[in-house]
Amino acid sequence: MATRRCPDCGVTLEEMTMRTSDGFELHLVTDEPKKGILGSLGAKEKVKPTAYACPECGLVRQYVEE
Predict the structure, then answer these.
(1) 1 in helix, strand or coil?
(2) Domain of life, per the record (predicted)?
(3) Strand partners, 53
(4) Which of 3, 19, 52, 64 has its CA 20 to 30 A from that of 28?
(5) Which comes out higher in pLDDT, residue 47 or 4?
(6) Cα distances (Å, whole numbers) of residue 9 to 33, 52, 53, 62, 63
(7) pTM
(8) 28-33 and 44-47 as β-strands: parallel, antiparallel, unpaired?
(9) What is the pLDDT of residue 1?
């Protein structure tokens, strides 16, 4: 994985974990069908974004690592 840098400050972004208030991790639902029988039933693929925060300005960005 490449080092992510803040577009505003130029410093290295720090990897963070984002969770809901219930303690669950966030995920994104894509338009791609899930593999296997769940996909044939209409279930969509989920991906987990990784959050990065700038320690200088507080900018937060999320990326899907592939």
Answers:
(1) coil
(2) Archaea
(3) 14, 60
(4) 3
(5) 4
(6) 39, 14, 12, 17, 18
(7) 0.70
(8) antiparallel
(9) 58
Q: Is 31 left (phi over 0), alpha (psi -120 to 50) or beta?
A: alpha
The arrangement of strands across the sheet holding 60-64 comes to 14-16, 49-53, 60-64
What are the tens digits of pLDDT across the range 7-19?
999 999 999 988 8
45 Cβ contact list (under 8 Å, min separation 6): 29, 30, 32, 33, 34, 35, 39
User: 5-52, pLDDT tens digit by residue?
Assistant: 999 999 999 999 888 888 888 888 887 877 777 667 777 888 888 999
Ranges of each domain in the chain = 14-64
